[in-house]
Structure formats: structure tokens, C-alpha cells
Amino acid sequence: MEELSLEAARRFEELANLHVAREKPLSAALSGGSTPKRLYELLACPGRRIPWDRVELFQVDERCVPPDHPESNYKMIREALLDHVQIPVSNFHRMAAEKPDRDEAARKYAQEMAQVLKPSKDDWPHLDLVFLGMGPDGHTASLFPCSEALHEHVLWVRPNFSARMGNFRLTLTLPVLNAASEVIFLISGADKAETLRDVIEGPSRHSQLPAQGVQPVHGRLNWYLDQAAARLLVH
Ligand code: 6PG
After folding, report:
1. 141 lines ligand 1 (CB under 6 A)
2. How far lies 134's CA from each of 101, 142, 152, in Å?
3. Most CB contacts within 10 A, which of 12, 22, 37, 46?
4. Mutation to probe ligand 1, out of 31, 71, 140 (largest number of atoms < 8 A from CB)
């Protein structure tokens, strides 16, 4: 976990500094769950040279709970990263998934993305970098096997129900993930090895293995794995 987190933090720092010289700040979307927490802690280390005023951070997904709830992805990101770096408050775009009207919350988040990313008319928003995780069932973001949001081809953000967890989430949709310039999967642990082999080396089964649906149209797709997660990969 440490090595892949260090490599991911290095890549983030590299991209953030590349963007200092460019017109647009670095736009990055952060996943929740447990794997990326170490990455966020490393990004918060004082030794990092990250121009946080030139970074716009979004969430990949969020559980439909209050932002101070133990299950909240925002709470994890805030405690691991935001509380320790000088990022302008307006540069972190929180998914207000606790709102009773989830569809309205999703619409508002998409509007906020549009204001910052300024996509061309009728185009998808283009994030520079997306960090994703993968569950043992092959889900990524809050795109769960055989779930409705997997087939979304209009909305950028939408609610989705997690049958496994028995709760609703808000999630970026596959077209948004696939419009990114770079997608990095952070996957650790032996419990992911079989699914990872099926996702990377098995037949296409997007509905059952949502992580297979992440295929950036023009961007780069990179897998940051530890040995336990990668142990069944042949190639
Ligand atoms: C979430 C995440 C989710 C996560 C996977 C892997 O809201 O939980 O966005 O997609 O990336 O469930 O989680 P771990 O990193 O904890 O294995």
C-alpha cells in the first residue's frame, strides 16, 4: 500500500506543478473508501511542493450520509488531506449527497463541475486526473454490478443504489470518468486479486465488472497495484 500510495502522490505532485505554468489549474477527482486514504495523507505531508491554489478537487462519489458521518468520503478526505493543506475552500467541490433530493444534488454538482471545467457545449467535462478504487465485486466509484447508473450516458453525476451496502450514493458516471486525461486505479490487497485478473485479463463483462467500463477515450489508464492484488495477473 505504501509504495503505490507514494507513486500516486508523486504523480499528483508532478501534474500539479505541470499545471502551474498552464492556464487551467489541475482538476482532479478523488475516490473514497480505504485505499486512497494513505495517498491523501502523503499529499498532506509538509515536504510536498503542491501549488494548492492551482488545484481544483472534486469527489468521484459520496455516500448519502451527512458530511461528518463515519461513512462519509468527504470526512475521510477532509481528515487525511484538507485539514492539513492550504487549499482554498472554494477549490474543493464537495458532493452534497446528504440532501434529501438526490437528483437535485446531482444536478447541482454537475453545474459546479461545468462552472469550473467549462466544457465545450454538449461535451463531457474533462478532468485532468481521476483516482479510482475497486471493490472485490469489481465496482468502482459508486458504479455497482448490474446497477442502473452503469448505463447512464446523459448525466454527469447521478444517484445510484448499492444493493450490497443497502444505501444510496451519488457518483460520477462512466462517460465522465472516460473523458479524463488520466485515470489511476489504486488497488491493494489479496482480496482484490481474482477480480482484478477478471477485470484486466478476462472477457468483457461490464455489467458484472464495472471497473472494465473505465476505458478513457483519449486519456491514459494506469493501474497502481501492490503485489498481493497483482499476484494472479499473467501479463
Ligand atoms: C467508495 C469508493 C469506492 C471504493 C471501492 C474500493 O465510496 O467506497 O469510491 O468505489 O473505491 O469500494 O474501496 P477500498 O479502497 O476501501 O477497497
Report:
1. yes
2. 27, 10, 19
3. 12
4. 31
Could you tell me if the CB of 135 is within 6 A of ligand 1?
yes
Task: Please report which residue ranges of 87-131 form alpha helices under DSSP H.
Answer: 102-117
Atom of ligand 1 nearest to the CA of 186: 15
Q: What is the pTM of this model?
A: 0.97
Q: Convert the pLDDT of each residue in 175-184 to its tens digit.
A: 999 999 999 9
Task: From residue 125, give the alpha-carbon distance in Å to each of 18, 38, 142, 160, 177.
Answer: 20, 27, 18, 20, 9
Q: Is the CB of 73 under 6 A from ligand 1?
A: yes
CA of 33 to the centre of ligand 1 (A): 4
CA 64 to centroid of chain Cα atoms:
16
Tens digit of each residue's pLDDT (9 = 90 or more) over 96-145? 999 999 999 999 999 999 999 999 999 999 999 999 999 999 999 999 99
Find how far residue 175's CA is from the centre of its chain: 13
Task: Using the atom order of ligand 1, give the atom closest to the CA of residue 36.
Answer: 15
Q: Region 206-212: what's the mean pLDDT?
A: 97
> How close is the Cα of 23 to the center of ligand 1, in Å?
32
> Is 93 strand, coil or helix?
strand
| pLDDT at position 81 over 90 | yes
